[in-house]
User: Which sequence fits this backbone?
C-alpha cells in the first residue's frame, strides 16, 4: 500500500484528514473456493490538522466477481466496480489526544475498485461508525 488517504465527512467528529507515512502493508489471500479474497491491511497516517500519527488496521472480505477478475487480470476493458462486493472493519490507534475518540468507535465500510486510464487502480472505502440506535 503506497497511498492511503483518510478523510472524514465535514460533520464527523473527531475530524481527520490524513495521508500515509512511509508504506503500509496488506496481506491478501483467496479462499479455497476462489470466490472471495480475505484482507488484512495495516498502515500509519499523519493527520494534517493536528500532526498526530494514527495507526490503522482493517480486515475484510471481497467477492471475486467477473468485473473484479478483469481488474485484477489487467484487462484493458476493465471498469470501476460499484460498492457492495467488498466489506471491511477498521480500527484506529493514536497517541494524539484530539483523535483519541477514533479508538472508541466500531467502523465498518463498503469498498469499490476505481479504474481510470493511465492510473493505478484505487480501492475506495466509505466508512460508517456503528452507533446506538433509539431505545
Assistant:
Amino acid at each position: 500500500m503506497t497511498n492511503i488517504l483518510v478523510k472524514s465527512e465535514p460533520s464527523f467528529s473527531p475530524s481527520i484528514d490524513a495521508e500515509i507515512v512511509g508504506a503500509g502493508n496488506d496481506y491478501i489471500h483467496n479462499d479455497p473456493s476462489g470466490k472471495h479474497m480475505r484482507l488484512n491491511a495495516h498502515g500509519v497516517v499523519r493527520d494534517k490538522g493536528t500532526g498526530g500519527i494514527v495507526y490503522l488496521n482493517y480486515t475484510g472480505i471481497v467477492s471475486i466477481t467477473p468485473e473484479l477478475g478483469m481488474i485484477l487480470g489487467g484487462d484493458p476493458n476493465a471498469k470501476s466496480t460499484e460498492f457492495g462486493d467488498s466489506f471491511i472493519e477498521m480500527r484506529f490507534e493514536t497517541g494524539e489526544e484530539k483523535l483519541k475518540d477514533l479508538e472508541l468507535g466500531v467502523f465498518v465500510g463498503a469498498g469499490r475498485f476505481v479504474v481510470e486510464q493511465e492510473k493505478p487502480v484505487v480501492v475506495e472505502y466509505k466508512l460508517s461508525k456503528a452507533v446506538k440506535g433509539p431505545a
Helices lie at 66-72.
